[in-house]
From TrEMBL:
Name of this protein: Tripartite-type tricarboxylate transporter receptor subunit TctC
This protein's record includes keyword Repeat: no
Family: Belongs to the UPF0065 (bug) family.
Keywords: Receptor, Signal
One Pfam family from the record: TctC
Signal peptide: 1-21
Origin superkingdom: Bacteria
Residue intervals passing through the bilayer: none
Length: 320
């Protein structure tokens, strides 16, 4: 009798699993983010979460777990149950750059995650505070740094910002001291206060400050001028030849989720990121829509992991 009951229970559990996955979601979803509230990626994550709530019919709660260039949040999600109720909203740091910036990660960016889809692409903006760093263009900043090597400092609030500065130093042949921050907002505060001389900030946070006139944009880091900053030259156009660096946002699940869960979440994300409303929102804050599914995100990760490795090695950045 015990054997029969055990067998019946096993069959019931096996037959019930797909049904539970097919009903996903039946409770709130946690969206982990490795950067602080108020950061550029935080603004986008909350907009995407609101869209997913409408599509999924359940609350999607953004939780900020800042630190280690996004690694704390990524590690948390990597070790979470793969049931679809804990997801990671992240930039290219955790799944392209950090493998080259840290001697050892507490997670495997490929094996420990299942890609869901891409959200947006974005460039960074080279900023100065005109009250403290009196230059009008990249050429003048480069001359200033070359004339007084090691005197000036620059801030970085994430992996892309850090690599952006190191790439500038390498290609322009300048010397400046990096001051790392836990996020871009505190780096912007110190830029405006004159405690750092320049900063590579994601456009989503740079644009509001530009409108207020407290900072000046010298260049953007991508190969093209973004829709929101048509009058700001690229670094290449500004004289730093060969400069091309951009970032992206994407969503991941822990590895090996039920396929029905991933399909449901990916389909909902595609509706959100493919909407005209999301496109207007992203372009209005300096990003560009990048609507894609699991295979698209997997390809972006593969391409960028190789690209960032080349850039970081060329810049001679020290592995932590």
């Amino acid at each position: 009798m015990k054997k029969c009951l055990a067998a019946f229970a096993a069959i019931t559990l096996m037959s019930g699993a797909p049904a539970l996955a097919a009903d996903y979601p039946v409770r709130p979803v946690r969206m982990l983010l490795g950067y602080p509230a108020g950061s550029g990626i935080d603004n986008v994550a909350r907009q995407v979460a609101a869209g997913l709530e409408k599509e999924l019919g359940q609350p999607v709660v953004v939780e900020n777990k800042a630190g280690a260039l996004g690694n704390l949040a990524a590690d948390f999600v990597a070790k979470a149950p793969a049931d679809g109720y804990t997801i990671l909203f992240t930039p290219n740091s955790t799944h392209a750059a950090n493998v080259h910036l840290f001697k050892k990660l507490p997670f495997d960016p490929i094996k420990d995650f299942a890609p869901v889809g891409t959200v947006a692409s974005l460039g960074f903006v080279l900023l100065v505070a005109p009250e403290h760093t009196k230059v009008d263009n990249v050429a003048q900043l480069t001359k200033l740094l070359k004339d007084q090597p090691g005197k000036y400092s620059w801030g970085s609030g994430n992996a892309t910002g850090q690599v952006a500065g190191e790439l500038y130093k390498t290609l322009a042949g300048v010397d400046a001291v990096n001051v790392p921050y836990k996020g871009v907002p505190p780096a912007l505060t110190d830029l405006i206060g004159g405690r750092v001389s320049f900063l590579f900030a994601d456009a989503t946070l740079a644009i509001p400050q530009l409108k207020g006139g407290r900072v000046k944009a010298l260049a953007v880091t991508g190969s093209k001028r973004p829709t929101s900053l048509p009058d700001v030259p690229t670094m290449d156009e500004a004289g730093v030849k060969g400069y091309d660096l951009g970032g992206w946002f994407g969503i991941f699940l822990p590895a090996n989720p039920p396929e029905a869960v991933r399909k449901t979440l990916s389909a909902a994300l595609l509706k959100v990121t493919g909407s005209p409303e999301m496109a207007r929102f992203l372009r209005g804050i300096g990003a560009e829509p990048l609507s894609g599914g699991p295979d698209d995100l997997a390809r972006v990760v593969a391409v960028d992991t190789e690209k960032w490795g080349r850039i970081i090695r060329a810049a001679g950045m020290t592995v932590e």
